[in-house]
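Customer escalation, tier 2.

The customer says the design service returned an amino acid string that "doesn't look like it belongs to this structure." They asked us to rerun it and document both sides in this ticket. The original structure tokens are below, unchanged.
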């Protein structure tokens, strides 16, 4: 059933009235993001002898049921049980959107509590998933089946984000929904590759039990877009950045280089999905007036989201995820870095507020150009949080009462 995010209008809407870019500029971002967003439709949904290629000619498939918006595409995907049909509808709908044939729109129908699924695989608790030796599948097919299940869930997770938050298109903007429909299209292609390779190995998706933990994480975050972004791209999909290279290494050791190549390509393309999630998480936090680092950690606690290593630091660094957000291996240093970052971000937010209020002729604090110069020249990693706050105080006493309430303990 479609559920409206709780406290949305009071918590989210007022903060989105003014856009700023100061916080986003403070973070690194994946350099391939613009290219990923502007790439043409990817037709390479078949894995050929040397890699991805368009599928071989086949009789024309029946067009999916009519839909008039991207949100309606998402609902159709979520209510489609057959995995390959789910993948095909995802691609068909995204193509129509990119060609300008449909808009984002709003899904006026009731959303399913859980996405439609085939009879197989049987869904069981994680502890009941058989070990490789008890699964009836060789190790390479076992690992590939697990990945296929992740990719199928990822299709539904991305479309659920599109459909569930489509009533707030005027707040989030069309780019948000275009990005997550694009993610869904990528995931549908990944599932097609996994399914094809399983058939080549003599198996098919559904030949062993699977769990439903991924969808449960999605359900927990159905009431808050910031929680959804934290739970899915920044936790679940980021795990794929960690696990991908290890899975490739195991498949190479098993001697299955073709499957290893497929997994390596999927892992490489998942970078874009984490980068997109990170981009939108920063944007949402900025518009809500929240510090991204502390907001992320609050959401991990409030929604019981677990982040555990080992971490693929190079891949996570590439998408811009700051290490102190997720790695507590050096607790003292992490705490110090986080505290400095939080002070820096909050000072930056004050400067942004001053600038915006000045531009609207509605000053809350007097605009002081030295604030801007101070923030731009400050290197928080070389200071203590006390030094940073005190120096800012000295520049303008009138910000003291606001900053005292924002400074960390």
């Amino acid at each position: 059933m479609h559920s409206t995010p709780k406290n949305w209008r009071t918590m989210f809407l007022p903060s989105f009235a003014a856009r700023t870019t100061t916080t986003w500029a403070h973070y690194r971002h994946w350099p391939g993001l613009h290219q990923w967003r502007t790439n043409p439709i990817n037709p390479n949904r078949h894995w050929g002898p040397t890699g991805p290629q368009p599928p071989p000619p086949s009789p024309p498939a029946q067009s999916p049921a009519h839909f008039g918006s991207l949100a309606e595409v998402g609902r159709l995907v979520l209510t489609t049980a057959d995995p390959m049909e789910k993948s095909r509808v995802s691609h068909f709908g995204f193509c129509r959107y990119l060609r300008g044939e449909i808009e984002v729109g709003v899904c006026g129908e009731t959303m399913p509590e859980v996405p439609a699924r085939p009879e197989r695989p049987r869904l069981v608790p994680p502890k009941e998933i058989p070990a490789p030796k008890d699964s009836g599948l060789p190790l390479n097919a076992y690992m590939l089946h697990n990945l296929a299940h992740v990719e199928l869930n990822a299709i539904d997770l991305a479309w659920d984000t599109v459909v569930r938050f489509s009533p707030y298109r005027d707040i989030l903007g069309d780019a948000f929904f275009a990005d997550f429909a694009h993610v869904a299209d990528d995931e549908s292609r990944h599932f097609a590759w996994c399914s094809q390779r399983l058939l080549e190995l003599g198996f098919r998706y559904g030949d062993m039990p699977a769990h439903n933990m991924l969808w449960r994480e999605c359900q927990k975050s159905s009431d808050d877009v910031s929680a959804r972004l934290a739970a899915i791209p920044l936790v679940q999909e980021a795990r794929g950045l960690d696990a991908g290279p290890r899975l490739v290494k195991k498949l190479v050791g098993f001697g299955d280089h073709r499957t290893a190549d497929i997994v390596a390509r999927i892992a490489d393309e998942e970078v874009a999905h984490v980068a997109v999630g990170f981009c939108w998480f920063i944007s949402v936090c900025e518009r809500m007036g929240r510090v991204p680092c502390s907001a992320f950690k609050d959401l991990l606690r409030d929604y019981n989201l677990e982040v555990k290593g080992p971490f693929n630091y190079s891949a996570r660094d590439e998408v811009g995820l700051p290490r102190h957000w997720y790695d507590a291996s050096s607790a003292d240093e992490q705490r110090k870095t986080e505290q400095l970052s939080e002070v820096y971000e909050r000072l930056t937010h004050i400067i942004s507020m001053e600038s915006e209020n000045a531009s609207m002729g509605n000053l809350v604090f007097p605009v002081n150009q030295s604030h801007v110069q101070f923030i731009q020249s400050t290197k928080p990693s070389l200071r203590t949080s006390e030094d940073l706050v005190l120096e800012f105080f000295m520049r303008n006493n009138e910000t003291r009462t606001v900053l005292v309430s924002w400074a960390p303990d």
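Tier 2 assessment: The sequence is consistent with the input. DSSP finds 18 helices and two strands in the chain. Residues 272 and 372 are 32 Å apart (CA to CA). Sent an explanation to the customer and offered a walkthrough call.
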